[in-house]
């Protein structure tokens, strides 16, 4: 399992967080994937549980800018800033996501490091 | 276990990576701590095994600059760049470290995300 394949998934993930549907984002995940977002919250196990997380993004106008990306074999850490607009608000969130990949480059686990300090919400 | 206590340990960690002894850095760790540096390598279990990692830094001239820091409860992600000089070489390394803390704010686990791409070595 190569660093290059992991890197491709990370790049595609940040791209789809900005512009993809929930279905497109879920295609990056392995069926047995586990997501903990934010870190310390109840893990979402499997694609149906994970879908809820991205479904809320779908109706929003979004953009995302990658920051630090570190990839080693089937592990990656990526920071990014996502700005979304909808429901009369602009939300800015800047997590560090930690991912592990299977041998097809699909995300096996994702843990998002952020707190309320890394989230701004303002009326527009 | 508070975010504030975790944050204090993270800040102190980056400070000591730049200027501390191995013994000072080890004081930030819980006795049962596990370190995986880089991610995917054999984990170092316990303070004696972890000490080796920091002992090699001691004779070097070092500085470190923190980058992205995300802290939530007893979890943290921190990127930093460390530049060290010694043995006729300058080494620059930029990992993302993922940490979990015990209820005293001591590091229970640290996993360092970096690869050869994030490491530069040049003669001085």
TrEMBL record, chains A, B:
Transmembrane segments: none annotated. Residues 10-109 form the SnoaL-like domain. It is an enzyme of class 5 (isomerase). Its EC number is 5.3.3.1. It comes from the Bacteria. GO terms for molecular function: steroid Delta-isomerase activity. Pfam families: SnoaL_2. The keyword Ribosomal protein does not apply. Keywords: Isomerase. SUPFAM superfamilies: NTF2-like. This is Steroid Delta-isomerase.
């Amino acid at each position: 399992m190569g660093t290059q394949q992991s890197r491709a998934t990370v790049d595609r993930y940040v791209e789809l967080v900005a512009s993809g549907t929930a279905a497109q984002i879920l295609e990056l995940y392995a069926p047995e994937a586990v997501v903990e977002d934010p870190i310390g919250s109840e893990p979402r196990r499997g694609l149906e549980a994970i879908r809820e997380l991205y479904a809320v993004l779908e109706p929003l106008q979004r953009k995302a800018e990658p920051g630090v990306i570190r990839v080693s074999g089937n592990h990656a850490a990526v920071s990014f800033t996502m700005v979304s607009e909808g429901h009369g608000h602009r939300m800015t969130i800047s997590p560090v996501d930690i991912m592990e990949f299977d041998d097809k480059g699909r995300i096996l686990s994702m843990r998002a490091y952020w707190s309320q300090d890394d989230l701004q919400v303002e009326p527009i």
